[in-house]
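Protocol step 4 of 5: obtain the predicted structure for the target chain.
Materials: sequence only (see below). No template structures provided, no constraints applied. The aim of this step is simply to have a reference model before the mutagenesis design in step 5. Sequence pasted as it appears in the construct record:
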Amino acid sequence: MNPNTQATATAADAPPRSHPRAFEPVTLVLTIVLSVLGALIGIVLITTLGVSPNTAVIGALVAMLIGRIPIGVLARMRSQHRQNLVQSAISGSTFAAANSLLTPIAVPFALGRNDLVWPMLGGAVIGLAVDSWVLFRVFDSKLLPATGSWPAGIAAAETIRAGDTGGRKAALLGVSAVVGFVGALFKLPTSAAGVGFLGNIWALAMFGIGLTIGQYAPDFGFDLGARHVPHGLMIGAGLVALVQALLLMRTRKGGAAAAAGAKAAGTKAAGVKAAGGAGAAAGPDADGGRTVEAPQLRRGLLEGMALFLCGAVVVAIGGGVVGGLSLPALVGWVLLAGVAAIVHQLIVGLAAMHSGWFPAFAVTLIFLIIGLVLHIPTVPLALLVGYTASTGPAFADLGYDFKAGWLLRRDAAPWRPFELEGRRQQYLAQLVGFGVALVVVAIAWKTFFSDGKVPPVAEVYVTTIKTGLEPGTMTTMLLWAIPGALVQLLGGPSRQMGVLLATGLLVATPQAGWMVLGALVVRQLYTRWRRRGVTDPAAREESDEQAENDLSLVGAGLVAGSSLNDVGQLTKAL
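Step 4 output (structure tokens):
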């Protein structure tokens, strides 16, 4: 072997003294190239199949392969942290292009108002920018803790780590990924099973129950979606979740608050144990816990609310809403748009954190229905829907990527400055991905829309706007909001049971409920099997930790394999 190449590889494997930069030439070039690929994948799949895949695993795999090329400068990509930057950018580009930019501008286009596409794109860019900024400010708070599940983040981190270390972990992850991929080929939602191994058991149990009820209710002549039952449950659960978030914002600093926050994060399996035990002593447990306290959480959300209101004003001016509404109606529209944007992002983020699924379409539809009840005119309502739809998915995706980085950085010492700098570099990498997505969408939207390739959800929004509501829809939703609020209140902010129940009912993917519930059963049985014959409390705790580590690898592999299959659907779409 060339001694220079060997020395470079050794240096790349050594723990860095400072976190790699997002704008380093090699990292930046790779980031831009893969972000273009991610944006194109997102646009093609959202317009043909109506889905937007998580491309983070693809980005991680490509970065790992490039790092194995025996050229000195490329060997820098052997660094797990550079791979994390690249996977953050490509996944951000995919979701930004498909969900946050193309879908919003498709709403006025499907309405026949091509002149509003560019103003709506401007509003969507603001929504996307504020969306990511708020998550950057509040990630690892009591509301959105790093110790939360964030399943896709665990999958990305374990993929990167297994590719670097090999051994038993790589074998277990690889076998699970193959199972996830093959299962997805046969139309089984294996990612749902993977999620069942990773998160809070109570939250996932409600998610699985919701999925199962949503799947089988039509067989008994009760179409939940048509009757807007899940939407009503989400309204009630969402309102309680917002109140719970406000209470978390009021919590003061201190040891008691930190302890309560650690408890609110759910099981250790989603955080410390999901990290595979690596570097736990050098990580956050030894260095002060959370990086975002209640005052910072409060500032981040208030800043987000203010920025969303400013974005709503820009949309109102650019879309001509100013001239079409009276002053009181215009003020009301701006307030509703700002509130809808931040509520949408929080509900989508909480659902994604616990379940790995986010009901962005359904929550946007709730605000569309509210707009219809308020008799908002067609064009202002379409712009409200597009602006709301621009928030949420990028918020959730950045949470996944921050989770992946948090797991990969746990063995750093000192941990806190390295973690904060790494998170900042991930944010910068995602901004590059967002910029690439904007350029791709600005160039490609006219070609896609002219060929009739419009995101199906946008057509549903426009159809709903044109047809209006059936009598009694809002009354039904408000009635079902009561049990949704009660379930959310019962579970508390750490479990988000009401939000997860409504999420399951809304997505209602066939067989996904059985996958989640089955994984929870296997999780309990495996944990009990490992602790058989163990009576010492310390030994039982160690056994449970090892069980959770194994199950986390299995779950991460299933999610990664399913994601690879989703990206593979590109050939079908083309």
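Step 4 remarks: Residues 329 and 376 are 9 Å apart (CA to CA). Residues 1-13, 253-281 have pLDDT under 50 and may be disordered.
Proceed to step 5.
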